[in-house]
Design a protein that fits this description.
The protein is mainly β. It folds into two domains: 7-26 and 276-404, Sandwich (Immunoglobulin-like), CATH 2.60.40.10; 32-275, Sandwich (Jelly Rolls). Helices cover 4% and strands 41% of the residues. The chain is built from two helices and 27 strands. The strands form five sheets. Strands 2, 3, 4, 7, 9, 10, 11, 12 and 16 form a nine-stranded mixed β-sheet that branches. The protein is elongated.
């Protein structure tokens, strides 16, 4: 195969420069749901029943509140969910309230009106601080996708464990449930957080595709699970946000203050996002001495059919997102990023720019010639795909292609 003479010196030049420094502050993902509305419910208007019920649609009709008292450890009340604006920021408030005399504590739960398929799911939230009696009392802040009859994928933050692993550390509980058999089965994992999730807003979530789930906190991967280890749900499911307490072996009892008085705990949610896009690479590595090829496959969904796209790349690890003006891209651009602009759709990078098919799919390829061992110190190339239509924005998860000898 004949390779452009520009390639080797261009790659050498790209490898010789530091990443371009851009502002680190990024807005919510393109497909996010904020809570810029009031969602007040008069206390007692919707008494909880034994069977879980949904009520009180949000003003944008995208969410409903759950009310029930059939939960083993606490009730769920519609009035424990509200949305408000303070300091110019719109948030969702989900509270756990103290148990009345002889009763149980009450939590809060909402469910999406729509169902969602494979994609990237995130919640940006601030969890409650731990109780004074922290090993025995606390709440759980949970973000789930529930596929009816199939299973669940979720991530939970238990307040009783926050700040216990050294200074400013926390724990995330990861779960996948399989409903296909009786009784249902669960896989559980643990992710160490290098921050205290109660000290500010942080993002939590998972990337879900056929046969695989990757869990994340603030864009750092916590764990991965594949169907070879445990069944991964398939189909489409509802998103749920839940804040609850009362399980002695899990959350601990309802939180109390230093004087032993029960107190209200708040989970504050900034936004929730679903990005119905998946970007993958086959294979996941290229030999620099022998050369090779990796095929990048994009699945954006039919709602993006015919939309223009561009594949971007960088050697650098993600630190400062790339600002295209209408969207922030999860890449830290370097000179390779800008070199690739002029080589998109060449014989080395076919399919790097074009229009999505009627199904919202596309394929691009990376074809590297032999003799590029000078790039080995970078160990990987990172790729992401972004729409070129500001009116219909998507940006994919980053994909890594490992560079091996």
């Amino acid at each position: 195969m004949n390779y452009p003479r520009l390639l080797v010196p261009a790659l050498w030049l790209a490898a010789s420069f530091l990443p371009v420094s851009l502002p680190a502050q990024a807005p919510p993902p393109p497909d996010f749901e904020g809570f810029a509305f009031s969602w007040y419910t008069q206390p007692g208007k919707y008494p909880p029943t034994r069977t879980r019920a949904l009520c009180c649609p949000s003003k944008d009709k995208k969410w409903k509140k759950a009310v029930w008292k059939g939960h083993p450890y606490c009730d769920f009340l519609a009035e424990n969910v509200d949305a408000y604006t303070a300091g110019g920021r719109s948030n969702l408030s989900m509270k756990v309230t103290p148990p009345p005399s002889g009763g149980r504590a009450a939590g809060a739960e909402i469910q999406s009106a729509s169902t969602f398929g494979y994609g990237s799911f995130r919640v940006h939230m601030a969890t409650p601080t731990r109780s004074n009696n922290y090993l025995k009392e606390g709440t759980s802040s949970a973000f789930y996708l529930r596929v009816p009859g199939k299973g669940e994928i979720g991530i939970e933050i238990r307040s009783k464990f926050q700040g216990l692993i050294g200074y400013k550390r926390g724990i995330a509980d990861l779960v996948v449930r399989d409903f296909s058999g009786a009784p249902p089965r669960s896989w559980r994992g643990t992710g160490v957080l290098y921050f205290d999730p109660s000290t500010g807003f942080h993002s939590f979530g998972f990337d879900w595709r056929a046969g695989r789930v990757d869990f994340y906190a603030d864009n750092s991967r916590l764990a991965a699970l594949t169907s070879s280890t445990f069944p991964i749900p398939a189909g489409a499911g509802n998103l749920l946000l839940s804040h609850w307490t009362g399980d002695p072996s899990w959350t601990g009892g309802p939180p109390r203050d230093k004087k032993g008085k029960y107190v209200t705990n708040y989970l504050t949610v900034d936004w929730v996002s679903w990005t119905p896009v998946f970007f993958s690479s086959t294979p996941g590595e290229i030999s620099l001495s022998a050369g090779g090829r990796a095929d990048l496959r994009l699945q954006a969904g039919s709602r993006f059919a015919g939309k223009p796209y561009l594949v971007l790349s960088a050697f650098s690890e993600v630190s400062n997102p790339f600002d295209l003006g209408y969207v922030k891209v999860p890449l830290s651009p370097d000179t390779f990023t800008f070199t690739l602009f002029g080589m998109a759709n060449s014989s080395l990078f076919p399919g790097f720019m074009g229009k999505l098919s009627t199904r919202g799919t596309a394929q691009a390829s990376v074809i590297l010639p032999p003799g590029l061992s000078l790039l080995l110190k970078y160990r990987s190339l990172r790729f992401t795909c972004v729409s070129l239509d500001p009116a219909r924005v998507f940006v994919t998860n980053p994909v890594l292609v490992q560079l091996v000898p």
